[in-house]
């Protein structure tokens, strides 16, 4: 995803910014593009990680070139919660550069921010997230959540012995040979990436590009239920984009069954024709779904 599209005028140059704030004024999120000189010592660390990235193969054999050209600061209201991430050539956010947190010249670090894009995920951060899952002993929880797409799922195994890359095998209750996750389609890969992203974003922010990608419309309601439950449990604020009416309607149907979740969600419609987003609260999302109102 080219981050230019989240800024007014679809421009990504140092100095451009936007701000999100709550109605009560208690919460504000500021996002700004910085030059590498403004970023400071973090830029040197990014350069080292880029060199390491080019020496590794990815799960899906992606060999794209990645070079940071700007930084993107995300400020949630105080210096201790301020972070900065690399913007690569072409506009995407650097995958795997968000952990550990980077420091700006101010010397302050912030809460974790994890990005999940439509691109292939790198084996290093994904394997690192799975290591965290094992350390916390929550692998059964991950497997349970993945049964949204495969009810017979019994195990998830990461392989690291076949060189610098990595592989993921899934096992079923009926036993037999464990099969690569790619055998189960893009939806399974996407759901695992989404679920593990919460591990990297615990007590922080998760940004998801096209959250419905790879998932059938019939699972949208359950997908949103999973996202909200995990976000609340791990104290994660989720920002997700979608172009899918089924995805939005799935959220509305979930709110119909669970009105207590209405205060946990909102919808922001962004268009280049308006300087400000159109804001819908949870109850308005539910009403739009019930009355089949187009809100994209």
Name the features:
296 residues; alpha+beta; 4-stranded antiparallel beta sheet; 3-stranded parallel beta sheet; 8 helices
Quaternary structure of the protein: single chain
Strand content: 15-25%
Note the total helix count: 8
Tell me roughly what share of residues is in helical segments. 25-40%
Mean pLDDT: 79
Q: Biggest sheet: strands side by side, in what order?
A: 1-2-3-4
Structural classification: alpha+beta
Q: Point out poorly predicted stretches.
A: 51-64, 97-109
What is the gyration radius calculated from CA atoms?
19 Å
**Shape summary:** globular
Number of strands: 12
Main sheet properties:
4 strands, antiparallel
Element-level helix/strand string: EEHHEEEHHEEEHEHEHEEH
Distance separating the two termini = 19 Å
Structure description:
The chain is of the alpha+beta class. It has a domain at 247-296. Helices cover 31% and strands 21% of the residues. The protein has eight helices and twelve strands. Helix 6 (220-234) packs across helix 7 (245-257) and helix 7 (245-257) crosses helix 8 (282-290). It starts with 16 loop residues before the first strand and ends in a 6-residue tail after the last helix. The model is unreliable at 51-64 and 97-109 (pLDDT under 50).
């Amino acid at each position: 995803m080219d981050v230019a599209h989240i800024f007014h005028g679809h421009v990504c140059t140092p100095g451009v910014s936007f701000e999100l704030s709550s109605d009560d004024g208690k919460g504000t999120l500021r996002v700004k593009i910085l030059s590498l000189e403004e970023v400071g010592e973090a830029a040197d660390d990014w350069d080292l990680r880029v060199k390491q990235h080019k020496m590794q193969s990815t799960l899906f054999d992606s060999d794209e070139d990645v070079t940071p050209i700007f930084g993107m600061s995300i400020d949630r209201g105080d210096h201790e919660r301020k972070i900065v991430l690399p913007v690569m050539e072409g506009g995407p956010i650097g995958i795997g550069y968000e952990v550990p947190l980077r420091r700006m010249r101010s010397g302050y670090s912030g809460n974790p921010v994890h990005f999940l894009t439509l691109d292939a995920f790198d084996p290093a951060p994904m394997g690192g997230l799975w290591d965290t899952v094992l350390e916390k002993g929550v692998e059964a929880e991950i497997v349970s959540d993945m049964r949204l797409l495969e009810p017979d799922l019994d195990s998830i195994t990461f392989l690291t012995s076949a060189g610098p890359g990595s592989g993921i095998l899934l096992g079923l209750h009926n036993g037999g040979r464990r099969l690569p996750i790619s055998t189960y389609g893009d939806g399974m890969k996407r759901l695992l990436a989404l679920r593990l992203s919460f591990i990297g974003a615990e007590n922080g922010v998760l940004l998801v590009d096209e959250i419905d990608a790879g998932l059938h419309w019939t699972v949208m309601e359950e997908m949103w239920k999973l996202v909200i439950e995990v976000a609340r449990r791990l104290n994660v604020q989720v920002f997700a984009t979608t172009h899918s009416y089924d995805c939005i309607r799935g959220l509305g149907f979930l709110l119909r069954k669970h009105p207590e979740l209405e205060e946990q969600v909102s919808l922001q419609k962004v268009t280049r024709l308006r300087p400000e987003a159109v804001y819908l609260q949870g109850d308005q999302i539910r009403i739009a779904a019930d009355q089949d109102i187009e809100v994209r």
